[in-house]
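User: Fold this one for me? It's Flavin reductase family protein.
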Amino acid sequence: MTASPALSTPRLATPDLLRSVFRQHAAGVAVITAAQGSRPVGFTATSLASVSAEPPMLSFGIGTGSSCWPAVSETEHVGVHILGEHQQELAATFARSGADRFGPATSWRAGPEGVPVLDGALAWLVCRIVARVPAGDHRIVLAQAVVGDRADDGRPLLYHHGRFNALRD
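Assistant: Here's what I get for Flavin reductase family protein.
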């Protein structure tokens, strides 16, 4: 087996290299929400991962410079929403700095534990945070699912090469 010429010259790992490598990785798109007092906060995440079935746990990353980090650093519960391909604009809104994420265009309600729950997601969970693990300029949040629901059908939204995409058959 021979290496592809484009992959034959290793480069020193840098933030730019890491970003360019992960542009090649397709990831599911989720929105993480929390309540900061009476104010809802949320952000788009592509780092969501299932961690354990017993107990049901997941993880996601969040930058400590994120406007949502203060809320996530203090709250006990977060909402995790798996977005469908019909929710590209919602994903973009929650990814955009300074956007009115919970404005009139966003349909949501206060859910269990006071966590904002977004309408129309393929699935959602309210999770209890069990750990916040330092990882460079981020924290890996480990959370145990408490309650949730899922749609009967729908196709997931993906993030690849810097864009939101739909699955192709």
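One thing worth pointing out: The chain has three helices and twelve strands.
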